[in-house]
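Weekly structure sync - notes
Attendees: PM, LS, DV (DV joined late)
Agenda: review two folding runs queued last week.

Item 1: First target. Sequence and structure tokens pasted below for the record.
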Amino acid sequence: MSTNPKNTLNFSGGPGALPDVVLNQVQQAIINVPEVGLSILGISHRSAWFENVVRETENNIRTLLGLPADYHVLFLQGGATQQFSMVPMTMLRGKKHPAEYFDTGYWSRKVITEAMREGPVRVIWSGEKAGYRCLPTEEELDFSPHAPYIHYVSNETVEGLQFDRIPGRDDVPRVCDMSSDFLSRPCDAGKFSLIYAHAQKNIGPAGVTIVLIRDEVVQNAPRNLPAFLDYRRQVETHSNLNTPPVFAIYVVLLVTRWLLRDIGGLENMAQINRQKSQLLYRMIDGSDDFYRNWGDTAFRSDMNVAFTLPTKALETAFLDQAAEAGFSGLGGHRALGGVRASIYNGLTLEAVETLTQFMDDFRTQQRRQ
């Protein structure tokens, strides 16, 4: 049972809802971590206890993903935004051939802007002309074998678009921003040279960013980078170069335990997430165009369901009534507007059922007026 009923109806795009069992454990830990006798907010990052937290969290992620042994798991700061720069500083700086980036939505555009500061970039595909309502098919892509790496965003949170495949060439390093669908489904992590994901969607609170990086990338990194922005130094210090976000990493540990022990792994998590998204898309598709999905059907996200109503006035009324009914976070991103239901790991199937019932009632109410 939730300690706060409103938490169960939190459809925010981020930070997102956390599982009740995790929230209850966090509540206890803020007062007293049982095995230490101190508040989590006052435990040293140099303590043996925290070293064990980092080790277990890393091992849990390895287990969930079946991560190959030649990868490092890092817990960094700066959000995904810092990775927009760290990746090209490490893999593009000084290179002759351009890195290849996908322009698939709001966040990928931000990534490209930062990469261009470090070296040549080729936008291999852009969804701008289509209003960012679709993703590329394999036939539309022409990869270069000489690119230092290929970069894409696996799930665009603003537009509600998600890749259902791993694009690219196996002989060119892949880099992926998985911030909004990391650990929401199985992933063949061995096909990537680097994966990064800030935590505040599926895996914890804001403050920590997970980076999975192949050892080859670490060893080939430039040796003149600032220590904080150098993957090599972060690996050497086991994510403890400077004071790390102890609290946020501890919550990630609790979420990975929940995924392993309560959910039973990422296959089960993916099945639950598909059930949630299918409920919402059935409601949208069966509404006689009262609710209108933003993205094309083939590219719909299981994480972020973005949609509009026939008029801005109806959208405003919908959001106002939703807030009165106890729903939170349904307003669309400021760049797009409309409505967005983010249904990350911590949001329950029951919460989505409650939302679809509200959507059905609202539509019926408006049709009668």
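Item 2: Second target, run right after the first with the same settings.
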Amino acid sequence: MTSRLVDQLGAQSVAGATAAALAGRIRALILDGRLTVGERLPSERALAVELRRSRSTTTRVYDLLEGDGYVSRRQGGGTRVALPREYVSPREHEDDSAIDLSIASMDSTPGLYDATVRSLPRLAALRGTSGYSLRGMPELRDAVAQRFTERGAPTTAEEIIITSGALNALNLVLATIGRRGERAVVEQPTFPHALEAIRRYGYRLLPTPVDVDGWDTAHLSDLLLQSRPHVAYLIPDFHNPTGATLPNADRPLIAATARNTGTHLIVDETTAELDIDRGWRPLPLAAFGPHVITVGSMSKIAWGGMRIGWIRAERSVISRLLAVRPSFELGTALLEQCIAIELLTEMPALTAHVRSRLAAGRAAVAEGLERIDGVRMPQTDGGLSAWVDLGAPVSTMLSLAAREHGLILPPGPRFTTGGVLERRLRIPITLPPARTDEAMERLRLAWTDVREGEVSQLDALPRAAVI
């Protein structure tokens, strides 16, 4: 079994690399967040065996990293990831002209202001209460439950908890049902912060592939049956980052397999409402069994600044969640809940606005990529982004080169468990067209730099961060 460091490096991709180049690759992994501060790295001897290199080479790699402050070494304590004392987040170096494609999110819906104004009397009526709302406001839980019911998963307010966003919801679920040392199935690629959360709760990650054409359902089913994981984290609707949607025909099979193996299905529906022109509407996975725990959010359909999310689960799980929740928060802000109630009464208008904005963003990305030779944009029916095929394993290098042109974008491996998918790049379709057009021009310039060899891997990796 290989170490996480070598999984992230990719043994084949660093074959023959010099010690300096290897140190540069590891620095990039640290700055990218794929290796976490404090994480223990393999010993020099173990790393040499895994990479099939000499002990002197791996010793030199760690010497270089220690000299720059990226690892700390202690007798008997091994080698651990660190950051230089003078380290400053790369975002702090960016000026106002930089375009950040690491966040795939739109600005607020035009109806947000009016919904806020309409919500104020509702908020004023709550001034006589304690202000704490562990479950969430009954009216909002009713509205979320009704939305599930309309989509084909009959739901009551008692099966809903309101949270401070979907990531907050995921962390609450993991804090409640998590088991350190157990297995967790995750898609490859997937939402990076979810990977970090699942890993933080001590799970061993088992990846199952997803591409723009969808899931390898045979692989996923076999993985569930053979490994019998404790949890499986899936994004079945407009998958982040590929944009794929799990077919209706596959949903009951996956749900039944997970039920038979005792696996908790954690389904992330943050992107479920981001339809442009898919042409069909799938049933929520929640419709196929009580073992399905669903998390969702208003952040992508209303505004990222409004931290409203939810959990849908069977009542026994809801009771467990409520018992754990006070250990790290006592509820979700009431103002945001009042606003969300107003917005959910206007879902047709809200989704129409989202559809229009995403269609315009998609068109702008497609037009920009037509100017970049060798890059292919797949069909994108909705969701946050296009999962672009670069035609060559240069994603990290392109990400580094883009920074020289004021463009911040994460490389394909940022969305994986093992440093793979260097041919892929996630490009959000959520920015206004004019901003997207400028971003695509900067990407074109970076692509030219990479193709012409103006960005050296050895020179660029140590000084650039990918986030």
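Discussion on item 2: The chain has three domains: 4-81, 90-108+349-456, 112-345.
Action: LS to circulate a short write-up before next sync.
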